[in-house]
Amino acid sequence: MRAQEQEMVRILLVEDNPDHALMVKRALSKGKLVNEIAWVKDGQEALDYLFHQGVYTDGGSASTPGLILLDLKLPKLDGFEVLSRMKQTPRLKMIPVIILTTSAQEEEINRCYALGANSYITKPVQFSEFAEKIKDLELYWILTNKLPII
Amino acid sequence: MAVKPKKGVGLLAKVILFSLVPAYFLVGLLLYFYQRDLKEGITQKYIQDALSTASMIQEIIPNPHFFQSPIESAQFLEKMIQTNPNFLRISVYAHVDGQVKVIASTEPDQIGRAGEPYDAAPLLTGKPVIEEGMEGELPILEVIAPYFKEGRPVAAIGIYASLISRNVLVTHLSKQVLWFVLPWSLLLLIVVFFVVHRVLVSPIRALSQAADTLARGELSHRLAVKGGDEIGQLTESFNTMAGSLEDLMSQLNQKADEIEQKNKELETFVYTVSHDLKSPVVALQGMAGILMEDYKDKLDEQARHYLDRLMANANQMELLIGDLLELSRIGRMTHSPEQLDLNPMVEEIISRCRMRFPQRPVGTVILPLPTVLADRVRIQQVFENLLSNAFKFLGEHPHPRIEVGVKDEGEVYTFWIGDNGIGIDPAYQEKVFEIFQRLQEVEVEGTGVGLTIVKRIVEGVEGKVWVESTRGKGATFYFTWPKHSNGGINESARARDG
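YS: structure for the whole thing
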């Protein structure tokens, strides 16, 4: 039952570097728990997606994700900005966020946690790392998935 | 602080010594000459009186044996003696029975008495004799003038004068002069004292104090210039020097600010570049990983080897960039220092190192370590880098050993991390702290930034780091950490405050 719920999860990947996006998608594809990945290339597009604005005005093409993978260095708006904006919105703030970072610097990570991020992964990404992080978030997930999806 | 010179003779004492002592000597000399001239003048007067009296006698009496009786001669000579109140006696000497004897005198009992050799001298030479001497207790002047008859000296007229009144007068006048000079010279001494103090000593002291103030760093300090004498010029020179110093200092500070600014820019640049470099390296690592994972079976041995090398180099590059980032962060990022117990920290680092280098069992000795005031991240980096270095360079020693210890040196702790590994050639012991310096002889992982990071952190808290080593016998790295460390507050900020 739970496994089925997990399989239904839609992941929003916010990543400007296509190679990095490819690596993330590949790592995720190795697992059985994901069936859909939406990929946006900058911070502004991520907000457009989440708030159904711009090219995503038609709500159908951008259903609210169950998990967000967020790169920090992004064009236009950076990851911190995206994180703080979505965490201020009641509808979005329950979505777990995993930060993708190349530097793993203490102050960056602390800032992310302070803004409400759930976990972080240092690139290059390995599937095993994802599996572990997602397992950590499992409990959280069960709770959030009970909320009506808007 | 200015160095106080050894206490010697003060300027005031010197001026007084060198000006007043010669002045007093001069006064003394003048007094001596004054006294001598006075004495001489009075004596000359006596002599003149005596000689004119003698020539009066010569003119009045036709020959020396003119008097009929001693009384008659005494009466006549008594009149003559009154020319000068200091004259005591007049005696006339002549040859009597082949001897020079008194033949007439103001004192009749002298008649018949034999004369002294100098009394007889004018009879032979025809020239007067002048003698100063004592008659009993009495200082006297004797003037013996020849008496001529038909151009030949036939008798001598001796006139004896008392010198008491002369001597009394000279002494009295000298004393008067002295009593006049003494109070005035005392007054002069006091005046000189105050003038020298005001004109020389005070301004020089003020200058000396101003120099001290300047030395303490108060470069805006100036002195008021009084007068155009040498001291005034010195004060002006001092002010000019202080002005130049102030200008130079402000230029220096400006330069320091510029350098600091440039340094910050450079650090930001290094940070940004390193950060941006990381992205492609991550892609490289990732793609190489995918290739290895998905196409392992399709690649032959040679291709897999190349791929391995590709991955190893990508990893090395990632390490390098990571270390560069770390290095650039030391200047930019600071945490507030806290009291840290180093014992669990070092134990944890050592157990991590054991996991990283599991090949051989390493004996470790950790002496009890203190609690220090430090930025946790920074001091951890110091121990981490030094300890992992020790583990890396253990070489082939059959009983590898690492020791961590500390020595309390009052103001600072001196920590050491020693090993019995391969050691470092003395020629390279300074170089190991330079960035990207690696000793090529050993094949170990690393970027050559670790010790540079250690150096920057330790020097950031005004500590020192150095290494002592014998090749083949191991190396011991030392570093000092101040007890009242500010934990790594920005160096440039401190440099300016200092």
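YS: worth flagging: The helical segments of chain A are 2-7, 18-29, 43-51, 79-87, 106-115, 127-136, 138-145.
IM: good catch. Also The interface with chain B takes residues 17, 19-20, 23, 26, 73, 102-103, 105-107, 123-126 of chain A (CB under 8 Å).
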